[in-house]
């Protein structure tokens, strides 16, 4: 039974001895930090230079290690709910949609996700397989979340935002960590060990999880339960001005398949089997800091993924990537960064009679150069301008420019604005998809499908009022062109993917933190969003693309409170309200999560909590007949460090 599995997992962790050490306490607890110290948190994703969060001219929110611990999140994707500038919807036991500023969909193809600088987007559909992406949560230092375009520094597909997961150095995780998490919805365990050596440190970990089936609104079980095992390592060396990091992960998982995907109306419906997924990655990063303030970084990665979607499709994908970044020393009023990247993918697909990717085997290439300069016009006013030129196998050269202004009208205040152009490059599903696998086709790919284009105007204001209250307000307007539609092919017997839709979006994001007392912190956030889609003149869409929009809530609200009761006890409360979705309609919902943690001795923490505690079950995405209802969940988590 599920209960026996998670009880034994927790018991093993509880019975392990714990001794006081540098690891007895978690990373710096935010409850003991002033807002002035919080504003001093440093980020690197906005400009490729380390800068204070308070000075970063972008809509950036930082999820800290302590935020994650206080939330009780059990996975990386659940931890992303802490970012108010993201919209996270759960589709099934393993399925999630993560987006910013609209365009929530099964593909989620307008967000770029990085783990320690390694892009995990797949060129198969320009999105993220969230069932395959996870890291041990205690190893995360912070997650930097940018809502809005960042193509100049990070390339195509950084259209509506960038999520950058940054893990701790190995010398910060020495010792043994054992963690057991058991509950009504999922059970998992983690074992991690780290140690030092001459000039550096290393760590290894192993973790496993099992997720239970979900149910529909009518109480029917959805076949989406699954399990996953993952192992990995990281090693860091310091040699004076040089730093070297080597890290890697490997995973294997299996889950049920709740509903057909990638089929068009009228196509044959296969009997669905399981989805199996496994893969691994290896990454090496070298950096050198110069006495004049410059910094050079070279990074190389290899990533292999294998996925079988029984009985419709299988894929084996090998990706190699090498990138060079150089932050030049400040020259007078100029702070220049430049870089280059080359990415190669070898994609091999196993087709079925239902779906085919043709050609089945394809090699893809991306090459890019970028430069960005920040010019100090006055001590309080900066102008940042940059350009990236990226070449891909489908559309050739793409140009991604951006211009930003940042003004500090007074201490603790920042006003910024930006104008940017970015694109979502075609994927294999855009160009090479055929349904069914042999003629006569109903859908025959899109041989002329071009990149989707987005143009953004942004304006933001950030202020730290005093040591107790700070807030950030971001407004934006975006125009999209060449969005995906389907039109009749030349023979008028099948449809082709095309670029026949346009969109205009606008919205506002507001969040703030209030220190009610030295041990009581409150985080508040709200978003508003509006979108309008229309077909380009002369376009007749056979994919009903207009009706497939509306997966984004018009508004969201979030409130989190962290109370450090005393040195051994803490209480956390989280509330979120998400507005309704349309086409298909998903009602608005509220969810309340609660967590209580107790440290009976140094190095040991016991936490109990619940999710969706005080409301009925709710849906977050998908059609009513097959969508998952998110039920109340109860869990217990034990963490032992020694």
- Overall mean confidence score, pLDDT: 90
Please mark out the parts with pLDDT under 50 across 5 or more consecutive residues, or reply none.
1-28, 261-265
Q: Gyration radius, to the nearest Å?
A: 24 Å
CATH class: Mainly Beta
Strand content: over 45%
Distance between the termini: 31 Å
Number of helices: 6
Tally of discrete structural domains: 1
Based on the coordinates given, report the CATH architecture.
Beta Barrel
Structural class estimated from helices and strands? mainly beta
CATH topology: Maltoporin, Chain A
Number of strands: 38
CATH homologous superfamily, by name?
A: TonB-dependent receptor, beta-barrel domain
Helix content: under 10%
Global geometry: globular
- Main beta sheet, described? 22 strands, antiparallel, barrel
How would you briefly describe this protein structure?
The protein has 642 residues and is mainly β. Helix content is 6%, strand content 55%.
Topology summary:
Layout: H1 2-15, H2 35-39, E1 42-43, E2 51-52, E3 59-64, H3 65-71, H4 76-79, E4 87-90, E5 96-99, E6 112-115, E7 118-119, E8 140-147, H5 151-154, E9 161-167, E10 175-183, E11 186-197, E12 200-211, E13 214-215, E14 221-222, E15 226-239, E16 242-255, E17 275-289, E18 295-309, E19 313-327, E20 334-350, E21 356-357, E22 361-378, E23 381-392, E24 396-407, E25 413-424, H6 428-431, E26 433-435, E27 443-444, E28 452-464, E29 469-488, E30 495-517, E31 520-535, E32 555-564, E33 569-578, E34 589-601, E35 604-611, E36 618-619, E37 629-630, E38 633-641
Parallel strand pairs: 6-9
Antiparallel strand pairs: 1-2, 3-8, 4-5, 6-7, 8-9, 10-11, 10-38, 11-12, 12-15, 13-14, 15-16, 16-17, 17-18, 18-19, 19-20, 20-22, 21-26, 22-23, 23-24, 24-25, 25-28, 26-27, 28-29, 29-30, 30-31, 31-32, 32-33, 33-34, 34-35, 35-38, 36-37
């Amino acid at each position: 039974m599920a209960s026996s599995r998670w009880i034994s997992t927790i018991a093993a962790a509880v019975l392990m001895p714990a001794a006081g050490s540098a690891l007895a306490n978690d990373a710096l607890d935010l409850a003991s930090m002033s807002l002035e110290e919080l504003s001093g948190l440093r980020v690197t994703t906005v400009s490729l230079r380390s800068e204070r969060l308070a000075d970063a001219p972008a809509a950036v929110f930082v999820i800290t290690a302590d935020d994650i611990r206080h939330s009780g999140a059990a996975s990386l994707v659940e931890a992303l709910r802490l970012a108010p500038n993201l919209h996270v919807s759960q589709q099934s036991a393993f399925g999630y949609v993560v987006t910013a500023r609209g365009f929530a969909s099964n593909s989620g193809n307008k967000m770029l996700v990085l783990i320690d600088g390694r892009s995990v987007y797949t060129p198969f559909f320009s999105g993220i397989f969230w069932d395959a992406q996870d890291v041990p949560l205690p190893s995360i230092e912070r997650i930097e979340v940018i809502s809005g375009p960042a193509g100049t520094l990070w390339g195509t597909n950084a259209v509506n935002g960038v999520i950058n997961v940054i893990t701790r150095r190995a010398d910060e995780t020495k010792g043994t960590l054992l963690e057991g998490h058991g509950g009504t919805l999922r059970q998992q365990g983690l074992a991690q060990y780290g140690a030092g050596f001459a000039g550096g440190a290393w760590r290894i970990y192993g973790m496993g999880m099992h997720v239970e089936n979900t149910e529909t609104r009518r109480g029917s079980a959805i076949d989406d339960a699954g399990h996953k095992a993952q192992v990995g390592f990281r090693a860091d060396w310091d040699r004076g001005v040089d730093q070297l990091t080597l890290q890697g992960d490997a995973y294997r998982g299996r889950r049920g398949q709740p509903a057909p995907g990638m089929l068009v109306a009228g196509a044959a419906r296969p009997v669905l089997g399981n989805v199996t997924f496994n893969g691994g990655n290896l990454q090496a990063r070298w950096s050198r800091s110069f006495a004049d303030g410059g910094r050079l970084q070279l990074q190389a990665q290899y990533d292999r993924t294998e996925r079988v979607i029984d009985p419709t499709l299988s894929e084996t994908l090998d990706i190699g990537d090498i990138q060079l970044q150089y932050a030049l020393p400040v020259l007078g009023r100029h702070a220049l960064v430049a870089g280059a990247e080359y990415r190669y993918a070898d994609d091999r697909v196993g087709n079925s009679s239902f779906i085919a990717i043709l050609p089945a085997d394809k090699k893809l290439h991306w090459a890019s150069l970028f430069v960005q300069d920040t010019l100090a016009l006055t001590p309080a006013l900066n102008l940042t301008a940059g350009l990236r030129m990226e070449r891909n196998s489908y559309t050739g050269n793409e140009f991604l420019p951006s211009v930003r202004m940042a003004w500090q009208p007074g201490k603790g205040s920042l006003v910024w604005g930006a104008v940017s152009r970015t694109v979502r490059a075609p994927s294999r599903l855009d160009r090479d998809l055929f349904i069914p696998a042999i003629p006569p086709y109903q859908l025959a790919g899109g041989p002329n499908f071009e990149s989707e284009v987005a143009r953004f105007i942004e304006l933001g204001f950030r202020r730290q009022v005093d040591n107790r209250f700070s807030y950030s307000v971001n407004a934006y307007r975006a125009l999209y062109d060449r969005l995906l539609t389907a039109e009749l092919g030349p023979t008028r017997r099948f449809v082709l993917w095309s670029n026949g839709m346009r969109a205009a979006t606008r919205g506002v994001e507001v969040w703030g933190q209030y220190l009610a007392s030295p041990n009581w912190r409150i985080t508040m956030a709200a978003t508003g969003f509006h979108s309008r889609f229309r077909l380009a003149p002369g376009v007749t869409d056979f994919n009903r693309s207009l009706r497939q929009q509306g997966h984004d809530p018009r508004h969201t609200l979030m409130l989190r409170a962290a109370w450090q009761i005393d040195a051994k006890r803490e209480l956390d409360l989280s509330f979120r309200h998400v507005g309704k979705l349309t086409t298909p309609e998903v009602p608005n919902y509220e969810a309340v999560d609660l967590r209580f943690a107790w440290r009976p001795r140094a190095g040991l923490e016991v936490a109990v909590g619940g999710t969706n505690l005080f409301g009925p079950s709710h849906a977050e995405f998908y059609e009513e007949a097959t969508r998952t209802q998110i039920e109340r969940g109860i869990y217990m988590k034990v963490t032992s460090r020694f």
